[in-house]
Amino acid sequence: MYLEIIIRLLLSVLFGAIIGHERESKNRPAGIRTYTLVCVSSAAIMILSEFIFKQYLSEYDLLSDPMRLGAQVISGIGFLGAGTIMHHGATVHGLTTAAGLWAVMTLGLIMGSGFYFLGVVLFILVYVVLVFFSKLSGKINDEKD
Predict the structure, then answer these.
(1) How many CB atoms lie within 10 A of CB 100?
(2) How many Å apart are CA 67 and CA 50, to the nearest integer?
């Protein structure tokens, strides 16, 4: 049981850090530490949710919803993401950072639940979107000019 928890948390740290490093390398408002903390904390909340569910079921024969805490994480991350969005005249900056924080929160919840296949696939897709779509977007904008 404890080894499984350690694996879930370490994968969350690893994936959050890699995605955060990509954002930090582009001098974005949230970087490696922010992304890693959001991801691993989300995983810990999911692990706690499962633990509480199992505790209540075995000790009191009560059913609890293991996603209740996860749902609060999903709602709460919006405040952190909103803090990264800045409005400068006609342009808005920080939307990708906010979306990235939401993505690593989701990744943390997935890794915390132990659904590794989905977590790995999501990690790969988020990383591809951040790294390669940025290059693609730059080329498209250069062609428009």
Answers:
(1) 25
(2) 8
The secondary element (H helix, E strand) that includes residue 135 is helix 116-144
Measured between alpha carbons, how far is 101 from 108 in angstroms, rounded to an integer? 10
Cα separation, 132 vs 134, whole angstroms: 5
Give the mean pLDDT of the chain.
83
Domain boundaries, the chain: 2-144
Q: What is the 8-class DSSP label of residue 29?
A: S
Q: What is the pLDDT of residue 141?
A: 59
**Main-chain phi, psi angles of 76, to 5 degrees:** -70, -30
pLDDT in tens, 17-73: 999 999 888 888 778 888 898 899 899 888 888 888 887 777 777 776 767 778 888
84 Cβ partners below 8 Å, 6+ apart? 29, 30, 94, 97, 98, 101
Give the N- to C-terminal CA distance of the chain in Å, as an integer.
Answer: 57
Distance of alpha carbon 87 from alpha carbon 128, whole angstroms? 27
The reply to whether the predicted model has a pTM over 0.85 is: no
